[in-house]
């Protein structure tokens, strides 16, 4: 009798474990299928117009694409407005956990003299934000768009960085080419995540 009682108990525990595993996998598939690939744009206030133009371009492209591969772009100012009074650094760290990709706009915001030579450099807080995203996300998921005359930090060698026009009136052909490439990569990333989630569901069903 004791044997059968233990046997029944073990079977019950195994069934509960299976149901939890299956439920988690099923929920993962549903979430991947419904959620967006979220893209964050960091910039200085001086480049905010450019950031909003990028967001509109990508969001409009996503609206005309397959609804199963949605991409949502959020500019830093609207994200900070919803931060609930947190310090800027806390908000940025939170963003690194919530977004799949980051676009960092490094424009000619400030002047600097380095070893007797004058340069145009990006705003220091934007460089810090770039570092935060680089530390959290895969390197290929962080895109740094540099203005033509800005000094590129030496530590950025090997990091995805692209020359961007920073035109306040319109996006150039080169700008849209960069954004279209990113858009394609985001769709591929969404598909890969969905495939992985479905593989986990299949493993749970086979258990």
Summarize the structure in words.
The protein has 207 residues and is α/β, with parallel strands linked by helices. Helix content is 55%, strand content 17%. It has 6 helices and 7 strands. The protein has helices at 2-34, 48-63, 76-81, 88-98, 124-136, 173-206, and strands at 37-42, 71-75, 101-106, 110-114, 117-121, 142-146, 161-163. The strands form 2 sheets. A 5-stranded parallel β-sheet has the order 2-1-3-6-7, with helices on both faces. A two-stranded antiparallel ribbon has the order 4-5. α2 (48-63) links the parallel β1 (37-42) and β2 (71-75). α2 (48-63) packs across α6 (173-206). The longest helix is centred in the last third of the chain and has 34 residues, at 173-206. The radius of gyration is 23 Å and the shape is globular. The two termini are 28 Å apart. Residues 2-9 and 11-34 have low confidence and may be disordered.
Strand content: 15-25%
Secondary-structure element order, as H and E? HEHEHHEEEHEEH
Number of helices: 6
As a whole number of angstroms, the C-alpha radius of gyration is 23 Å
Q: Which sheet architecture does the biggest sheet show?
A: 5 strands, parallel
Specify the structural class.
alpha/beta
The geometry reads as: globular
What is the number of E strands? Answer: 7
Helix % is 40-55%
Mean pLDDT: 78
How far from one another are the termini? Answer: 28 Å
Q: Main sheet: which strands, in order across?
A: 2-1-3-6-7
Low-confidence stretches: 2-9, 11-34
């Amino acid at each position: 009798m004791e044997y059968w009682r233990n046997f029944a108990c073990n079977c019950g525990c195994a069934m509960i474990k299976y149901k939890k595993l299956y439920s988690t996998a099923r929920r993962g598939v549903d979430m991947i299928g419904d959620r967006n690939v979220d893209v964050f744009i960091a910039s200085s206030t001086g480049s905010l117009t450019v950031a909003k133009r990028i967001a509109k371009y990508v969001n409009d492209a996503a609206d005309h694409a397959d609804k199963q591969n949605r991409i949502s772009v959020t500019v830093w100012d609207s994200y900070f407005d919803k931060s609930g009074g947190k310090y800027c650094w806390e908000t940025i760290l939170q963003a690194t956990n919530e977004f799949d990709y980051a676009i960092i706009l490094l424009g000619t915001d400030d002047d600097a003299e380095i070893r007797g030579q004058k340069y145009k450099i990006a705003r220091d807080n934007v460089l810090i934000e770039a570092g935060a995203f680089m530390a959290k996300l895969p390197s290929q998921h962080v895109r740094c768009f540099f203005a033509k005359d800005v000094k590129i930090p030496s530590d950025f060698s090997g990091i995805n960085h692209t020359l961007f026009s920073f035109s306040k009136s319109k996006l150039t052909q080169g700008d849209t080419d960069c954004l279209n490439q990113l858009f394609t990569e985001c769709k591929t990333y969404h598909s890969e995540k969905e495939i992985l989630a479905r593989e986990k569901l299949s493993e749970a069903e086979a258990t």
